[in-house]
Amino acid sequence: MNTKGSVTVLFLCFLTLFPDLTDCSTCQKNILEGDNLTFKLTDRPLKDDDRFTIKKDNKAVVRKKNNKQEGLGIVKNDSLELQHVNLSNSGTYGVEVFDVNGTNLKSYSEIICVYAKVPKPRVNITCQDEKVDFRCDVEVDKDQRSAISYSWHKNGKEFKKNVFNFSINAGEDKSVYTCTAQNPVHKSTSDPVEAACFKHAVFGIDTKWHKVRIIAGAGGFVLLFVLIIVVVTVACCACRLKEEQQRVTDEEALRTNNLHSVTQ
Q1: What is the phi-psi region of residue 84: left when phi exceeds 0, alpha when psi lies from -120 to 50, beta otherwise?
Q2: What is the Rg, in whole angstroms, of the alpha carbon atoms belonging to the chain?
Q3: pLDDT tens sequence across 41-74
Q4: Residues paired with 165 in a beta bridge
Q5: Contact 158, 90 (CB under 8 A)
Q6: Are both 175 and 111 inside the same structural domain?
Q7: What number of other Cβ atoms are within 10 A of residue 106's Cβ?
Q8: Angle at 136 between CA 131 and CA 139, to 5 degrees
């Protein structure tokens, strides 16, 4: 009796009866969505009359097939290849291979995890008081998020690992930061972002003071404009007052002349 083979078969049966005991944290093979998944069938060239069965989560996906029968996957030498796998192909697989006499040639289980490509992350910066908060945002499905890990680079050198966000003091920091999001089979890096919330240089001038100068200049212009309006208004009022006084004087002189003419 093949004791080793019997123990392997019993272990395989245990896993297939309790598939929830395994998850992608114990993946034995990680596959990128769209790639091919290969199962090794024998340690020798596969014979025409060898039979094999492959189960996924205790459900048969390939039944008692030999290398000449049509069915799921392509037999290549001593292996079966499933092409262009997708996320639904993740699971616990059991492989059993027998020769023409029913002797077990190979039995094993394998936990397969299929992952999607990681989209390009985006660095979001929030400025508050004298601190800059960094956050690495990446749009992935909820069931894929737990497999994502993060790393940060500062001026091209690794800065932090396994953190989604962090904060720094703003100060004079003009460093460039990028974040990388990755799963076990794929990674993607954000565009570089400068940590500059409070002080930015424009033509070598600190924009903090540059803005102050602009505001001061604008305020001075407004003040000058108001002053001109006041001066013009006062001048106009003075002219009107002088004209009114002259009119009154002329009217009094005219009345005086008329009185002299009557008395004569």
Answers
A1: left
A2: 43
A3: 998 888 888 889 999 998 988 876 666 666 778 8
A4: 135
A5: no
A6: no
A7: 19
A8: 145
**Quick one: tokens of 71?**
């069915």
Q: How many folded domains does the chain comprise?
A: 2
79 falls within a domain: yes
Phi, psi of 214 (to 5 degrees): -65, -45
**This prediction's pTM:** 0.62
Same structural domain, 188 and 129? yes
- 178 φ, ψ (degrees, to nearest 5): -135, 150
- Are residues 131 and 92 located together in one domain of the fold? no
Contact 127, 102 (CB under 8 A): no
What are φ and ψ of residue 34, in 5° steps?
100, -15
Contact at 8 Å (CB) between 53 and 107?
no
Supply the DSSP symbol for 132: E
231-259 pLDDT, tens digit each = 888 777 877 777 777 777 766 766 666 66
Biggest CA-to-CA distance, the chain = 163
> Exposure of 236 by Cβ count < 10 A (0-12 exposed, 13-18 middle, 19+ buried)?
exposed
CATH of the domain at 176: 2.60.40.10
H helix runs in the chain, sequence order = 3-17, 142-145, 207-263
Write the CB contacts of 254 (distance below 8 Å, at least 6 apart in sequence): none
Structure token pair of residue 251: 């009217």
Of 194, 213, 240, the domain-final residue? 194
Residues 178 and 157 in one domain: yes
